[in-house]
Amino acid sequence: xxxxxxxxxxxxxxxxxxxxxxxxxxxxxxxxxxxxxxxxxxxxxxxxxxxxxxxxxxxxxxxxxxxxxxxxxxxxxxxxxxxxxxxxxxxxxxxxxxxxxxxxxxxxxxxxxxxxxxxxxxxxxxxxxxxxxxxxxxxxxxxxxxxxxxxxxxxxxxxxxxxxxxxxxxxx
Length: 172
Hints:
Helix content: 25-40%
Largest sheet: 7 strands, mixed
Number of domains: 1
Order of helices and strands: EHHEEEHEHEEH
Number of strands: 7
Radius of gyration: 16 Å
Shape: globular
CATH architecture: 3-Layer(aba) Sandwich
Distance between the termini: 24 Å
Strand order of the largest sheet: 1-2-3-4-5-7-6
CATH topology: Aminopeptidase
Structural class: alpha+beta
């Protein structure tokens, strides 16, 4: 597994993810066509660069793009991450590995990293908790998802907590 910057050539693999109801169950976007996926990629990529964010990273396994992880917002010294994985690759620890790499890079710039998860998204919550994120609370009716407002849970990890965990792991 490796991370690399998203490129337009990734559109077909990403369409497989963004057109799959199981993969996008807790994602705010869904693409019915390859063209919609390509448009989303152009809009996302351009908006990230315009906002001074790192470009989105794709998660690659055996030369196939199987997911995305990225910083989708930043303010002051706080970054906010988002991530999605092709359902065929779940339960293999791949997202946790990808996020470790993203966090390592992110903590060079940010003091605090946040993630938002829909309350029902237990897989993502467990992944974040394994990485040391702490649940801070519920943001009620925070986002529109499938034509209704849904609650999301706010998770955060501080740079000093990340550094402490790394020291413990390296001592073992």
